[in-house]
Design goal:
Keywords: Signal
Largest sheet: 6 strands, antiparallel
Pfam family, one: Thaumatin
CATH architecture of the largest domain: Sandwich
Protein name: Osmotin-like protein
InterPro entries: Osmotin/thaumatin-like_sf, Thaumatin
Signal peptide: 1-27
Order of helices and strands: HEEEEEEEEEEEHHHEEEEEEHEE
Number of helices: 5
CATH superfamily of the largest domain: Thaumatin
Number of strands: 19
Structural class: alpha+beta
Distance between the termini: 95 Å
Length: 322
Amino acid sequence: MASPLYSCFFFCATVFLFCTFAKAIQAQPSALLLTIVNNCPFTIYPAIQPNAGQPVLEKGGFALQTLTHRSFPAPTAHWSGRIWARTGCTYSNAQFYCATGDCGHRIECNGLGGATPMTLAQFSLHHGGEQDLSSYEVSLVDGFNLPMTVTPHEGKGVCPVVGCRANLLATCPNELQLRSPAGNGPVVGCKSGCGAFGTDELCCRNHYNSPETCKASSYSEFFKQACPATFTYAHDSPSLMHDCSSPRELKAFFFVLLLRYCWDGSGAAGGQSLSADRFSVVLLFMGKIFSSSLPVAFGLLTKVPARRSLKITTYHGLLFVR
């Protein structure tokens, strides 16, 4: 029969080991999913670039069909990087190319950055010790190519949905517009002031690379007025980066405002001139469908007179009216 002293020692050792094991389990970061959702009416090519020294996730890029999503586990240790969507992508003559966000003409970016302009989300996962913080923000510092939001699920603390829901391609100033094809093609991106003009002041380089000298410009204010919860220049307010404790999932949504049209039930070919009072229009926004007559819809959205003849052009499922 064991002595009382031995029994007491065995009990204390068991409790100590149990508490140590429980603390170790608690200290491990919770499982975290990253999900990219394509609510656009066309295929996009998401790209993922890690910061220096971090692993590449999902080979750095892939195709994502319309109205689908892709989820993958985040690293269990600290990871930081950025996610964006490439648009207007084609594959011809054994060459892959995207009108926006292109990463060296390849589908799998494998750590390469993207060509601006592009809307992007920046993440810093599993930091803050036992708090297990995941930080996230949406940035227009490199310009805009698609509306984008980041939505956390089941996190603790202040975990807001952030991003830019506005279609800035429709309101982009002429001097910031990226068109594809160049010249008379539709607007596929909206450049930052830095991307358009490349000056040290607009790019916050050299003398201007500090919070005291890097200031908002009229170009960054264009983005800020449309999407106030986004970063719009390099030293924008740090409060726009949000820290969420132990979220189960972080979702990056890409979407567009889509105008779909029909004419006497027969449809319309791109490039035809058609009378505005002959159409109905369906607005698809974030998965919600709204219906209106075309004169009313365009009267609200673009102030087009109700009986004006409209030039209809399509690009990757988007409707452009001239």
